[in-house]
Amino acid sequence: MNTSSVRLPLLAAALLSAAALPANAQDAAMGNMAMTNPSAMKWVDAPPGLPKGAKLAVLQGDPSKEGPYVVRLKAPGGYKVPPHWHSQTENLTVISGTLYLGAGDTMDMGAAHALKAGGYHYLPGGAHHYAFTKSTTVVQIHGTGPLDIKYVDPKDDPTAKQ
Fold first, then answer.
1. For residue 155, what are the contacts with CB-CB under 8 A and spacing of at least 6?
2. β-pair partners for 5
3. Cα(130)–Cα(15) distance, rounded to whole angstroms?
4. Pairing between β-strand 113-116 and β-strand 129-133 as defined by DSSP bridges
């Protein structure tokens, strides 16, 4: 099996400084706690390892480095992520919309499971899967980095097309 590996370069320093400063209460009593309302999230284009069209907000940590992270991904209707896998375990919660998920090396849209707002998905590292949306969907992903994406078919890797 050929795989293509892409580490998700998230422009960590720029994103974290842009997202964290105005979004987190800087009050001394808060210590290291963070509170972020949706209006304070800084959405940027998703990293080049993902198909174009999605937006990403880093809520905590740096997904490109070792350690815990929390991100939100906003995908438009018709967005597709071809079969791929991640080295690390991923936890995903649908915030709004519906995310369609399937397992395996082939994108079979008819076999995908619809995960609706409030739904949760646990994905162990190494599990081959694919995802798509039919309408705008926001998901929150958390885990321990670094977060990477390895496409089952190297031709699906968006960075190989640049």
1. none
2. 150
3. 26
4. unpaired
Residue for token digits 């992270």? 69
89-139: pLDDT as tens digits? 999 999 999 999 999 999 999 999 999 999 999 999 999 999 999 999 999
Residue linked to tokens 């031709």: 155
At 37-88, the pLDDT tens digits run: 999 999 999 999 999 999 999 999 999 999 999 999 999 999 999 999 999 9
3-state SS, residue 83: strand
Yes or no: say if 83 and 129 are a contact pair by the CB < 8 Å rule: yes
The gap between the terminal CA atoms of the chain, to the nearest Å, is: 23
Please answer whether residues 72 and 143 qualify as being in contact, where contact means their C-beta atoms are separated by less than 8 angstroms.
Answer: no
